[in-house]
């Protein structure tokens, strides 16, 4: 019980009744006043103690901005892109990436000019014809044969290089892109020669063999369906389409009962079955979850298996992996691992997981979540083969409007992703934080807080969703004690303090802006872009920044290709007035390369056995 609050309540009653009696007012009024204050107390305890939502006064106000200013901001992003790309061209092309402090280059993939190929579609969208033309020389000249003792990393090459070629083809129809994509897709195909059809880690392009352990991470074995399906579509080759469908087929056949219908982090590539119980949407898992929905959307929403898998995975996440932090009520998603005491949340929150709000918003935007019967689905029946506890969880979800619920989850998570930037002295977001949990504070599952919120009359915004201020307390604690205090009040400590120029947060801000039309997502993106300009810019490009949680951030000598392919692309699209890539016509792969939504023709369905 909260004593000060209670005493305050009683004082109000005492003072009020003596005042009334003084004026000769009956005992009925006193009883009424007493009942009223009890009611207020009940409200108080429901509102503050049990769920404790922030008041709407906690809103960040942004001054309105004219359309011209937004357009100008998109051009500032284009200037940033040119700065980064010109540095790459001058000091690194045709190697993979620029090292932006030493003005040198690095071939951390295959030496196939990955930054140039990864950047093609962004240049096309930004209207950068000269840069595009020069980058195309790499598309013409790259020799996909590597020295005999090296291997091509399958996953990274598919999402960056193959994805880059395919989306540039989709935007331009230039046939050389289709031809090179076909060659690359074919040269990578030995990876699929496994008992399950899940790809191995790498390919030796000289020997035509696959290479790597027989246990693979979820993201690496299942983030290629979109690329191979679209490649099959534009080449008319059945073998590409067959490759695209192996992951879906394996997932449908996998036994996931003990994982609540979610896909664990490691898989046996021989048997095609899950190998551990680590459930996560972060590193080593992330894009596999993303492709479940996106494969469904890209192939014109015909493949119901993918839709069912998406609903199961999101339901498990909403019910089991989403929590509210104790003081600021920040909504976050974490992972759960097998400890001696059973599967427990780590309360880590990764920057990589910040794609999830965008994915949930995309799902809420495109799927009939509040009317699944329309597509022949019975939502609660999806839990029929799960444990009774999971089944109850589905019923809890179904007692809300599922579309609202997904969108609230998206908004709350995206806000926390943004706040992890805005909370820091640099304005840049750390790679991993650990949320306050345990001790005297019980951990609060988001869905429990949602049920409390509903029971107490839906007062204020849903838990974790109302607008919140960045942290204004001591941002740079000097010793362990101060760190402990900051942790306790800010609700998290920074576990990995580098901003790796990653896209996930601005990606989600972009999708939320397009889906909701709420300009606050744009403003938040602008905050982040300004921090990147201020902290990460070097004379020849942009650098990863370490120690974002201090006033002495440290640049590191790396500029990943995804900074150009994803981070700057999403920022540009966020500020552009025109919706250049409508979300119902295009689907972004996990490297932000847009592929068009397409339908298989009757002949293709027959020839390939697809839906
Ligand atoms: C890298 O190149 C930029 C642009 O030419 C230059 O300003 C900077 O001094 C160079 N840095 C180093 C370490 O050479
Ligand atoms: C590509 O590289 C391989 C291995 O170095 C070489 O044998 C082959 O001739 C090259 N192909 C072309 C078209 O240059
Ligand atoms: C993978 O599954 C196969 C076939 O069931 C089994 O023989 C093998 O031991 C498993 N490998 C691992 C690493 O679990
Ligand atoms: C949906 O499935 C559940 C079983 O999980 C069943 O009780 C319910 O009647 C079904 N609803 C409809 C409309 O078929």
UniProtKB/TrEMBL annotation:
Pathway listed: Protein modification; protein glycosylation
Bilayer-spanning residue ranges: 30-48
Keywords tagged on the record: Calcium, Disulfide bond, Glycosidase, Hydrolase, Membrane, Metal-binding, Transmembrane, Transmembrane helix
Keyword Transmembrane helix annotated: yes
Reactions that this protein is recorded to catalyse: N(4)-(alpha-D-Man-(1->2)-alpha-D-Man-(1->2)-alpha-D-Man-(1->3)-[alpha-D-Man-(1->2)-alpha-D-Man-(1->3)-[alpha-D-Man-(1->2)-alpha-D-Man-(1->6)]-alpha-D-Man-(1->6)]-beta-D-Man-(1->4)-beta-D-GlcNAc-(1->4)-beta-D-GlcNAc)-L-asparaginyl-[protein] (N-glucan mannose isomer 9A1,2,3B1,2,3) + 4 H2O = N(4)-(alpha-D-Man-(1->3)-[alpha-D-Man-(1->3)-[alpha-D-Man-(1->6)]-alpha-D-Man-(1->6)]-beta-D-Man-(1->4)-beta-D-GlcNAc-(1->4)-beta-D-GlcNAc)-L-asparaginyl-[protein] (N-glucan mannose isomer 5A1,2) + 4 beta-D-mannose; N(4)-(alpha-D-Man-(1->2)-alpha-D-Man-(1->2)-alpha-D-Man-(1->3)-[alpha-D-Man-(1->3)-[alpha-D-Man-(1->2)-alpha-D-Man-(1->6)]-alpha-D-Man-(1->6)]-beta-D-Man-(1->4)-beta-D-GlcNAc-(1->4)-beta-D-GlcNAc)-L-asparaginyl-[protein] (N-glucan mannose isomer 8A1,2,3B1,3) + 3 H2O = N(4)-(alpha-D-Man-(1->3)-[alpha-D-Man-(1->3)-[alpha-D-Man-(1->6)]-alpha-D-Man-(1->6)]-beta-D-Man-(1->4)-beta-D-GlcNAc-(1->4)-beta-D-GlcNAc)-L-asparaginyl-[protein] (N-glucan mannose isomer 5A1,2) + 3 beta-D-mannose
Domain of life: Eukaryota
Listed GO CC annotations: endoplasmic reticulum; membrane
EC number: 3.2.1.-
Residues that hold Ca(2+) according to the record: 590
Annotated disulfide bonds: 354-417
Cofactor: Ca(2+)
GO molecular function: calcium ion binding; mannosyl-oligosaccharide 1,2-alpha-mannosidase activity
GO biological-process terms attached to the record: carbohydrate metabolic process; ERAD pathway
Family: Belongs to the glycosyl hydrolase 47 family.
Protein name, per record: alpha-1,2-Mannosidase
Gene source species: Suillus discolor
